[in-house]
Amino acid sequence: MESGSSAEKVRVGFSIGEAGGVGPQLLLCFLGGEGWQDVLIPIVFGHRKVIERWRTHLGLRTLRYHLIRSPAEAKPDQLNLIECGEAPDFSIGKPSVQAGALAQRALIQATEKAAAGEIDLLVTLPADKTTLYDEASFPYRGHTEYFRAVFSQFFPLMVMVSEGLRIAVATEHIPLREVAMALTSEGLRKAILTLRRSLQQDFAIPAPRIAVLGLNPHAGEDGLTGDEEKQLLKPLIRALWEEGILVGGPFSADGFFGSRRYTEVDAILALYHDQGLIPFKLLVGWEGFQFSAGLPFVRTSPDHGVAYEIAGQPEVELASLSAAIWEGIGIVRRRRAWEKAGMA
What is the spatial distance between Cα 241 and Cα 245, in angstroms, rounded to a whole number? Predict the structure, then answer.
């Protein structure tokens, strides 16, 4: 990476996630290494108690941090911290209601700053849905659901990304029995168009090829095992194709992945969470990352959860967080180029 001035560095905001989970550990280990200082300015939304607890636990006392009130005050070459509310009571490797409340506030504040253009990239560290969710203060089952509620004029879409594989999901964290009812022609159309535009502006693919998976076994077998393919998916795909959009399907998910047809397309739209994430994690492991297509700013995240069982252990795998950061910066730069070219 080439060295650059502070003005050229990418301002990367991190929402702290679950304080007792592996997220803060991964972040401090990343910042305790080399290579990022010439490229990015880290701005963490969290609390000093979390940073100090983890810094002591990891033996990273020399890792400096700087308390600031806004991203404009951020300094290069060190961790910049914006405190979000009260210090949480938490233990490493365990969930905490107070840590969940901090994760809520950190996500909300970081999102506000990203939407205002005060940070260039938002990286959300893993949160525990059981402590993040609160019917009164945060009635959302995950990050994407929150973004979709706040940015209702857009259509945020969860996309799992690795080198050569991108899988979006049309529905996120809902029970399997509700998936069929949640699928509509309008919603699927928005998902496909959002994915297509993101592939163009964020991944520099001029004419993206998108595959849509079927809902039922063997993609319905002409109505024998379900009629969503005949009644919903095929007419929509045909109409989009006639509009010049390179979309195909519906494909039987098992045959599609088993025959490696995923190597022939630029992205895949899965219809429910596990249909997309199981093959992604089997093929990629923990080296991919999550990306929110369709937002007015760039947001990425590691492709794993809080991992209490390994939080605090000496060796943790940084690959997914590193991908979320470095590839996120790449997306920021490609989107800027797209906008500069007048394509926005």
Answer: 5
